[in-house]
Design brief:
Blueprint lengths: L19 H18 L7 H15 L5 H4 L1 H5 L3 H9 L2 H9 L6 H15 L8 E2 L18 E2 L5 H27 L5 H31 L5 H30 L7 H15 L5 H13 L13 H13 L4 H28 L11 E3 L15 H5 L1 E3 L10 H4 L26 H16 L8 H4 L8 H25 L2 H12 L5 H9 L1 H4 L8 H13 L13 E5 L4 H12 L12 H13 L3 H4 E5 L5 H4 L2 H30 L3 H4 L12 H6 L2 H48 L5 H18 L5 H19 L1 H15 L8 H32 L5 H8 L6
Antiparallel strand pairs: 1-2, 3-4, 5-6
Helix pairs in contact: 1-2, 7-8, 8-9, 8-10, 9-10, 9-14, 11-12, 13-14, 14-17, 14-19, 17-19, 21-23, 24-33, 28-31, 28-32, 28-33, 31-32, 31-33, 31-35, 31-36, 33-35, 35-36
């Protein structure tokens, strides 16, 4: 807005409607009227006017009335402000009634003087507030309203009413600038108000020039005033529309309660931290910080990204108006500068400098690196830095939506910093990841290199160079952190050691450990000594570890789980909803719960034994508690198979002893004759019983070995080769892709090992428990065989064969039933949703069921 300085043109003086003498007479009358307001009401105003005019004429001084009045020279606004408070409405009306008795030229001069004050927001004599208008009650952001005296000539009144909106716009914009310059409204609002204030300076300069022309030029008329302020009227109307939308955006939403938003943020923090502890103070400080910002309890003020979004929307909606587009473009550049500065600091250094929560990135300070030691949900990586709108690369989730404020009631726009400017919407994930990666690099003690050439560039939100800077910063941060993890931190050797220890790719150490700790593992989980088991594990690893495996063997620790593997998995599957129809809770739920509690109390150490793995930051981002838990589940699954296989193999060795190999016939033969079969004597019955025990043990051992072979050779090894190939070939391009590939690898292994389906888990757990229980009765079966030989030689004979058959039949029935159920489930899932189980179907079909 270029200020216009009207010039005096002497050549047009002959065209004036008033002579110089008449003009001075009118100006003197105006000055006398103003001075008469300050005198006592009893003084005759007409008399004072005549004396004033005669005094001026006697002195012969031809000067404007403003200069003749000393009070105006010293304080030009004081007399006007004082008059508005002294003069009552009745007196003002009496003056207004006299306008229609004045000449047209005098009316124009009086109105011109009033307009110069009204355009600055000061009430005039003939241009006043409406009768029903109260400054205290009206919203100052809506601007002041003025009305012109009805006694003014209609031709002048029409022109004045065109100019009056300018006063409303100016006062409304000035009130907005004063209100939004408060600290609570953030840097973006401050920058926007500063740009508006510069525009208001141009407006005030224009008013000063117009006042100078009014005081010095007899040629200055109301028409000329309209000519000069007409371009400014459009500019201020655009500013006024913007300030009104910004001011009413949060007021329209004031009726909707934000208690749910605050409660959700508090719940999200409590969910991450629990209740109590030192970190609860951090949560309370965050809440207190929010309350100290002066934000009302009913909503969040319009600030940060929301201001820029409103500006961008107005630019788009008024793109057909060049003046509006240019004006809003200037404001967008000015208001977006602090936003761009915060954005560049984030993507270049990883530091989040956002004191008023205006940026689209949110930092949860109560989540620090210490949570990595006990965090099973990747809390540090996923929620330390997040987008305020709750969106993630994999889609929004309820857990991320917990801290997102509710949208505005009209339009559904997110408030404050949660509203991302439309120009950055498709770049928001790269912005988040660029700073997040650099933050990890900084916490590792590495120096983040700064690009001195690009740091000096001044870019705006609408500048294409900003997008280039974001892309370059993201590429640099991602490449640096990937190199840090894969090369400096030796991620691939670490993952290989995890495969060795948890997937038992070379399980000689486990066999050695089970042999050394056989007596300790037979104790209950509470009675077993973890210190002793740890020393035995170190002994087993020291005698077996070689090469790069020996580098990380000290990071492997022994620990005890709090619950059984299959019970815990079934609970997780049921809670997560991965359960088939018809398996809901039934009437036996209470009894099963009591049984689970009893089993938990009596759980053996071998059932609770698991390994743990310790890594330092930043490797703990990849090998987090979330992933180590998956490794532990697979390890316990393989450990139980190994343990049952070892127990059944021990049983096979036991079956080579005398009671199982000795012939029951006097001639030493094993095969019964036809006569013996017809008689069904004791020898034949006992011989068949032993063969059924052998057969059941062999079938159980075959089942366990087939499951173990399938899990190791058909599931774990191929999936590991795929992951290792991606990492070594450089196909992993981002750190988040690395994290996703690692978790997907473990989830795939869990699914293909049948640990994520409730039906498969239930059938398999019953089978493995049957096998382990059968192996536990090895000594009992041997004792029963010895008793059979001892009683067979006595006179009374052996009367316990029926009991032996019944006892064995329970194991056979149970095993056959659950084996058939398990095989049917595997065939169903292999044909429907998990084709990787097809090799297991072939393996299980090779185990023949006796007829």
């Amino acid at each position: 807005m270029d200020p216009y300085t009207p010039g005096r043109r002497a050549g047009r003086k002959k065209n004036l409607g008033l002579s110089t003498r008449e003009y001075m007479k009118v100006a003197g009358t105006i000055a006398s009227v103003r001075k008469g307001r300050q005198l006592d009401d009893e003084i005759d105003e007409d008399l004072v006017g005549r004396e004033r005019i005669s005094r001026d004429k006697g002195k012969g001084r031809e000067e404007p009335s403003f200069i003749a009045e000393a009070s105006f020279v010293k304080a030009p606004l004081n007399s006007r402000v004082g008059s508005s408070s002294i003069v009552n409405h009745g007196k003002g009306k009496s003056k207004q009634e006299s306008l229609d008795r004045l000449p047209l030229e005098l009316q124009e001069a009086l109105i011109l003087e009033d307009l110069l004050f009204v355009l600055m927001g000061i009430e005039g004599t003939y241009v006043t507030y409406p009768s029903d208008y109260s400054i205290e009650e009206e919203d100052p952001l809506q601007g002041m309203r003025f009305v012109v005296s009805p006694s003014l000539d209609p031709s002048l009144r029409d022109l004045v009413e065109r100019i009056l909106p300018l006063a409303t716009y100016y006062t409304g914009i000035s009130s907005f600038i004063e209100a939004r310059s408060h600290l609570d409204f953030g840097l973006v609002n401050h920058a926007l108000c500063a740009a508006m204030r510069e525009m208001m300076k141009d407006y005030q300069t224009l008013l000063a020039q117009l006042e100078y022309a009014f005081n010095t030029s007899p040629q200055f008329t109301l028409q000329k005033l309209w000519f000069y302020v007409h371009p400014t009227l459009h500019t201020l109307s655009l500013l006024y529309q913007l300030t009104t939308e910004l001011a009413t955006a949060d007021e329209a939403d004031s009726e909707s309660s934000s208690s749910s938003s605050s409660d959700s943020e508090e719940d999200a923090r409590n969910e991450a931290l629990g209740l109590g502890g030192a970190k609860l103070k951090a949560v309370l400080s965050e809440i207190n910080k929010t309350s100290q910002l002066g934000v009302s309890a009913n909503g969040i003020t319009v600030k940060g990204g929301e201001v820029l979004t409103i500006l961008h929307d107005r630019m788009q909606s008024m793109s057909g108006d060049p003046a509006a587009k240019e004006l809003y473009g200037v404001l967008m550049t000015a208001a977006g500068k602090p936003y761009v500065d915060m954005l560049q600091a984030w993507i270049r250094t990883g530091k989040l400098v956002d004191p008023y929560e205006e940026l689209c990135i949110k930092e949860s300070k109560f989540i620090d690196r210490g949570t990595l030691e006990m965090d099973y949900t990747d809390e540090y990586w996923e929620r330390r830095y997040t987008l305020r709108d709750g969106s993630t690369l994999g889609g929004s989730s309820k857990r991320h939506q917990a801290g997102v404020p509710l949208p505005r009631t009209p339009g559904g726009r997110l408030p404050g910093g949660a509203c991302i400017p439309p120009t950055l919407e498709r770049w928001k994930h790269k912005i988040l990841l660029a700073g997040k990666y650099l933050n990890v690099i900084r916490e590792c003690g590495m120096e983040v290199k700064k690009d001195s050439s690009s740091s000096t560039e001044q870019v705006s939100l609408e500048d294409e160079r900003l997008y280039k800077l974001i892309d370059e910063a993201y590429t640099y941060a991602n490449r640096t952190l990937l190199h840090l993890l894969l090369r400096d931190q030796q991620l691939i050797p670490r993952l290989r050691s995890l495969k060795r220890y948890f997937f038992l790719s070379q399980s000689s150490f486990l066999t050695h450990l089970l042999d050394l700790s056989h007596s300790e593992l037979r104790k209950s989980a509470r009675s077993a000594s973890i210190v002793k088991l740890q020393s035995l594990l170190d002994l087993a690893l020291n005698t077996d570890a070689q090469g790069e495996d020996a580098m990380f063997r000290e990071d492997v620790k022994v620990t005890m789980a709090n619950s059984g593997l299959y019970e815990w998995l079934l609970n997780v599957v049921n809670v997560s909803g991965v359960i088939d129809e018809g398996e809901g809770p039934d009437g036996h739920g209470h009894e099963e719960t009591k049984k689970d509690k009893d089993d938990k109390k009596q759980m053996l150490a071998i059932d609770a034994l698991t390994l743990d793995y310790t890594v330092n930051f930043p490797l703990s981002l990849v090998i987090s508690r979330k992933t180590i838990l998956r490794y532990q589940l697979i390890f316990r699954f393989l450990l139980h198979l190994k343990h049952v296989e070892q127990a059944l193999s021990t049983m096979w060795i036991e079956h080579k002893t005398t009671p199982w190999r000795r012939s029951t016939r006097p001639d030493g033969s094993f095969e019964p004759t036809a006569a013996d079969l017809a008689k069904k004597d004791w020898h034949t019955d006992f011989h068949n019983w032993r063969k059924r025990v052998f057969l059941l043990r062999a079938r159980m051992l075959a089942f366990v070995q087939q499951i173990l072979a399938f899990a190791t050779f058909e599931v774990l090894e191929p999936n590991w080769r795929k992951l290792e190939g991606k990492l070594e070939a450089g196909k992993v391009e981002t750190v988040d892709q690395l994290l996703r590939d690692h978790v997907d690898f473990l989830d795939t292994c869990l699914k293909e090992c049948m640990l994520t389906s409730s039906k498969l888990l239930k059938a398999y757990s019953r089978l493995i428990v049957t096998c382990s229980t059968f192996a536990l009765y090895t000594a009992s079966f041997t004792k029963s065989a010895n008793q059979a030989f001892a009683t067979a030689d006595s006179a009374d004979g052996d009367h316990g064969m029926a009991k032996r058959w019944d006892f064995l039949a329970k194991f056979e029935t149970n095993f056959n039933h659950w084996f058939k159920v398990h095989l049917d489930c595997v065939q169903f899932y292999a044909s429907s949703e998990n084709g990787s189980l097809l090799p297991l179907v072939v393996r299980l079909n090779s185990i023949k069921t006796p007829t």
